[in-house]
Each structure stands twice: as structure tokens, then as C-alpha cells.
Amino acid sequence: MLIGFRDAAKMRTKKIVFEEVYTACDAGSLEKLKELSSRRQAVEESINKNSNITEAIAREMAGGVTCPYQQNLQKLEHYLPLLINLVFYTESVVTGAQKLQKRVKDFKIRWSSPLSASCVLKIGGPKFYSFNNLRFELGMNLFLYGATMRERAFETLSTDLMGTAALFRKAAGVYKYLAEVILPPLQAHLPKDRPPEVTSSFSNFMSLICLADAQAVAAKRAEEKSSSPSLLSKLHLGVNLILSEANSILRSTEEEGNDVSAKLKEFIPTCIALHELRSQRYLADHLQGESKVGTAVAVLRHAVGKAKKVRDPKSDSWRAVLSQEISDVEKKLKKLEHENEIVYHEKIPSADSLPVLEGKSIVEALPYEPQTLENRQQYFI
Q1: Domain assignment present for 93
Q2: DSSP string for 230-288
Q3: Which of 113, 148, 180, 314 ranks highest by number of CB atoms within 10 Å?
Q4: Which keywords, in A-to-Z order, does the entry hold (predicted)?
């Protein structure tokens, strides 16, 4: 069983009516502004959970899709190309007659952050961050797109491991694109009080988290195929190689002033402890197969001792998964100790003499290619 941080998609936003922000100089541009507002409204009603549309109508509008996360992905895929076009237009040097003019000088784009400690702790509703920058709107929507894709991956985990891994890798690609292409021009304009979602370093962190999820799924697939204990040990430790890099980035984002939720910071060490324990369990299986029972006992003793030093997570589900893993390893340790005492009589080596664990990472992000408008001339460009 995997554990996952599932709060990233719990974003909220306030309404934007683009035709109230911009004055269109022709009927065609006004029509496109209204389309932008309509597409945006569909997204905001879904994440704010204030839509009056019934499930049957929502399913029909989505072409028969019943999964809410898939429906939300569709809505974002309809909105993002229009938004990207508007961002490109407003940031470009326009010559000749302009089709849009700013009507509201300092209009507010407002989003909440489920990953910010100040938002999580706020009483009476989420805290909203306000910016007068369309790149902020684009960044938050792309972040939501990656988070929604990640949630969809968790839904398919029990039925389609290959599809699940692909979704995690696609989400990693979205966050990488966000960090490398969309957010860098915004960084210089960010105040100290900003959500972590709009910083490049945090998007890089999320990209690695999605890759760690994909690596964990790869390990699960290998388990189902009854792969060798040696390979399984390396795959699980591969998860930790990725998570360790992510943890370093997370610490750097805090140094940059990002206010990150305690739950997110708790997730990383819990996940690392879980996969290290699984890696060492499979390493012990490998050593037992080579008749190195004494060394296998030492590996499991060290693994259990280290796992028990990890601070218990507040999440009941995370704590249950880690506790069950520790219990399973303790049972295996007790059995090996008994066998060694009765049959093998091997010396138990010290912790300093244990085999060095090897990790193997086999996943990469799938590049995100933003959808483009078939005919840009129909829009503002």
C-alpha cells in the first residue's frame, strides 16, 4: 500500500469575469473574453464545490465521463489554452490597433493554498492570496492541473498500475514545465506573502514527489511480477533517492520564505521510512537466499530500530501503513532469529558491517506540451 499527500488539489479561488476587466474593441474579442469567463467559471465552481449542476448533467457535459477528477481535467484543458493565449497577448508588444484595453487597473486574482501553513491554520475559511498578474492565474491553474492529474492517478491505483504510473509521470511533467517555463518571469514580482504554488522551487519539489509516486508504483508492479528480492530492494530505495532530493528542495523553499504546511513536511520522512523499511526487508530476503541468515537478521534489526525512531505521523492512515510495515518486518525478524539460533548458528554482524543499500530509479517525467489554439488569429493574437 502506498501513502500519499492528497491535499494539493484542495485549492479555492474567487470569481473572475474577464469582460469586466478588459474592454474589447471588437465583437469577436468580446466573445472570446466571455468564453474565457465561462471556462473559468466551470473550473472555479468545481473546485469551490458550489456548482448547481447535477451529476447526470455533469456526466453528459463531460461526454459520459463519471469520475469528478477526469471531469475537472477536461474543464482545465478547455480553459488553459485560452488563458495561455491571453497571457501571451497581454505580455507581448502589440503594434497597430489593440483588441483589448485594460479596464480595471488593479483587478485581483485570488487563490487559496492548501499547502501553506497560514492557509491551513486560518480560522473561518481559507486565506486568499491576491495578485494583479495573469501569470499568477496561469501558474495556479497549471498547479491545479498537475494536482488533479495526481489525484486521478491515486484513483486508478488498484485497477491499472501502468496507467497510474503514466499519470504520475505526466503530472511530474506539468510541474517541471511550470517551474521552468511559466513561473520564472513571475518570481521577481512576488511579495513575501505568497503561496508556495507559484515559486519555481516548489514546483520542482512537486515534480519529484510525482516521480517518487511513479517509482513506488513501479516497485509495486515488480512485486506483483514476483521479481527478485534484490531488484525489489533497489526499486524501493529508488523511491528514497527521489524523495531525498525533494526534501532538500523543500528545505530550500522554506529558506526562500515559503510557508509550507506541517503535514506536507511530515509526509516526506514518513514515506522515506516506509520505503527504506521495505527495501531492507527485500534485502534480507536476498541475503537469506544466499544463506547469509546472520547478516539478514542484522539488516532487519537495524531497519526496525531506525523505523521506530521516526516520529509518528499525525495522519491516521499514514501511521497505520507504517505501523503495519514495522509489524510485518518484526515478525520476519523473529522467525529469522529463531532459524539462526536453531539451524544456522551464524554470527550477527554489527551495524557498521551491514551491506550498503543500492537504489535504482527507473522513472522520468513525461514532457508536458500545452495545448495550443488551432487558429490563434481567431483569438487576441
Answers
A1: yes
A2: HHHHHHHHHHHHHHHHHHHHHHHHHHTT--B-HHHHHHHHHHHHHHHHHHHHHHHHHHH
A3: 113
A4: Coiled coil
Domain of residue 42 covers 17-104
- pTM passes above 0.85: yes
Confidence band of 95 (pLDDT split at 50, 70, 90): very low
Where is average pLDDT lowest: 97-106, 168-177, 305-314?
97-106
Q: Rg of the chain's alpha carbons, rounded to an integer? A: 25
Task: Look at residue 94 in the predicted model and tell me its pLDDT.
Answer: 55
Structural domain count, the chain: 1
Say if 160 falls within a structural domain: no
On whether residue 32 sits in a domain, the answer given is: yes
Cβ atoms of 235 and 362 closer than 8 Å: yes
| Segment 70-76 long-range contacts (CB within 8 Å, at least 24 positions apart) | 70/152, 71/46, 72/43, 72/46, 72/47, 72/148, 73/145, 73/148, 73/149, 73/152, 75/39, 75/42, 75/43, 75/46, 76/43, 76/141, 76/144, 76/145, 76/148
Closest of 369, 329, 361, 366 to residue 166, by C-alpha: 366
Residue 342 falls inside a structural domain? no
